[in-house]
Amino acid sequence: MKLNGKKTAYNKLIKCETPHFKTVIIFLLLPLIFLCAGGPAAASESSSAETQLKFSDDIKEHFFIGGEFFQKKNYAAALIEYNNIRQIDPAYIEGYLFTAKCYFNLKQYLPAAYFAGFTLYMEPQNEEAKALLEEIKSASPGIDFKDDRVSYKFKADDKIERLIFDVYGSSLYLKGVLEQNGGKKDFAAGDSISFPLDLASIEDAGKLKKFDGTTLQYDLEALKDSILTQKESNLKAEDAMGYFDISGEYLKINRTYKAIAAYETACYTDFEFVKKKDPQFISKAEAFVKDLVKKEPKNSEGYFYMAFILFVQENYREALSNFSYASSLGLKSDILKRAFRYSDLCKQYIKALEAKEIEKEAILKASADASMSNKIAEVIKKTNEDEDIKTELSPESRPGSDPAAKGEEEPASELDFNSMTKEQKMYYCYQQRKIIDEGIQKYNENNIVEMNAETFTLQKLREAKYITVDVKCPDGGNYSLNHNGFVQCSAHGL
Fold first, then answer.
1. Which secondary structure element, helix H or strand E, spans residue 488, and what is its range?
2. Distance of CA 194 to CAs 171, 178, 197, 319, 371, Å?
3. In DSSP terms, which residues pair with 37 in a beta bridge?
């Protein structure tokens, strides 16, 4: 079953009329129903997405039993089964949605709103949860849900301790909830109180409680991590503020790597967030990535995030060196594209010759460390004019090569674009853009009127011998100069 707001397999199953017939059919068809609900594409997504969590036999059993109780209107018994689902998998969305439905049918509207709100917190577009919340607000005016908390207006006979127990399952949450409400302790009829979904904000409660009084076997950080991962997967690519906020939430639960990655996404999407860096976070992030690459010296993503932290700290020389080193080790295409963009930004603050030397040293270091991707090394050798780099990347210099083979290297041949990987093509195109950029710099040094976005042409650079190679994009992209003076490709961007 996929984690979405669409009709669930349970809703499809409960249409069987005869109890005995329904039981037999459900047991026979349940595996097929769940397979058909997602299909091969869903299975593929499950293997690649962290938030597409395994539908285990235990969850299947609790979901089936809970469905039986729910259909018989034994909502209290169904509630225990749905709570058990959350214990097995704290990010499984139906464990929250059907818990909310049980409470609603039991006319316990505050916990119903809490779990319906939790469903929307994890999946903001869940239509069932939205509809259920509207029913709850209609049945119990004074209840509302916004952002990451449920608000409630006191009635004359309400007791704060009882309300907190109804929502969280334990009075241990009293202190934390009161602190979240400004420390207020006495509430009268008509007063408002909010119940945060962020359980990590509750002190003195190391374990969550099921509503039958037993203790769940996962801690608050693990729960919050699962929820944040699910919430992050629902963010739109352009939602820089969303990633910035998620970064802060990850940091609260000591998920430093995820916090760094989310903050980098926010900054890459909107560079204004670089200015919003928190010095304490940056210090912690720097220590984390340094320790990471020390333990895993071939972790290219570790070097990428180290470079990013240095970039945010405005240490552009070291940042450029680490971006180049990470790229040379080999990065996935989406991160490789980011590394190229950051590298270009670093070069704005570094003299051209110094920047070129920094990149050269990083490439040679990656080769000397015997860590460089052979596929990337092949592209670097074909696109780099530096003799030191060509020598270092020659077959006899590569790790595991036969020294006796020296001098037997076949004549250089053109790379076959059709056989190149996505990452190879991106790296090749990036090197072509660097060649064009160097040609433009030489042109501008020798001409009073500098080349700009309107006057840029490759033909002009070739005719004046500022470019002596046939630059071309492996994916057939066209090169141009943007209004900021950066060479860009129609296929690969900056």
1. strand 487-489
2. 16, 9, 10, 44, 53
3. none
- Higher model confidence: residue 253 or residue 24? 253
pLDDT of residue 244: 92
CA distance 434 to 466: 13
Question: Nearest CA to 381 among 443, 320, 424?
Answer: 424
What is the CATH code of the structural domain delimited by 9-229? 1.25.40.10
The top-scoring range by mean pLDDT among 15-29, 157-171, 392-406 is 157-171
Instruction: Evaluate whether 162 touches 155 at the Cβ level (below 8 Å).
Output: no
Per-residue pLDDT of 152-209, as tens digits, reads 888 888 888 888 888 877 767 787 788 878 888 788 888 888 888 765 554 444 444 4
**DSSP code string of 101-151:** HHHHHTT-HHHHHHHHHHHHHH-TT-HHHHHHHHHHHHHSTT-EEETTEEE
Classify the phi-psi angles of 450: left when phi > 0, otherwise alpha if psi is within -120 to 50, otherwise beta: beta
3-state SS, residue 75: helix
- The dihedral built from the CA positions of residue 394, 400, 401 and 404, taken in this order, carries a sign that is positive
Do residues 373 and 330 touch, judged by C-beta distance below 8 A? Answer: yes
Torsion 327-332-335-341 (CA) sign: positive
Residue 11, pLDDT above cutoff 50? no
Torsion region of 370: left, alpha or beta (phi above 0 gives left; psi -120 to 50 gives alpha):
left
Q: Is 285 exposed, middle or buried (0-12, 13-18, 19+ CB in 10 A)?
A: buried
Distance CA 436, CA 469 (A): 10
For the chain, percent helix, then strand, then coil, each to nearest 5? 60, 5, 35
Q: What is the DSSP string of 344-369?
A: HHHHHTS-HHHHHHHHHHHHHHHHHT
Token output for 428 = 């090749």
What type of residue sits at position 282?
Answer: I
At residue 487, the 3 state secondary structure works out as strand
Q: Is the pLDDT of residue 398 over 60?
A: no
Mean pLDDT on 106-129: 86
What is the rounded CA–CA span in Å between residue 152 and residue 146? 11
How far apart CA 168 and CA 161 sit, in angstroms, is: 11
Write down the pLDDT at residue 232.
84
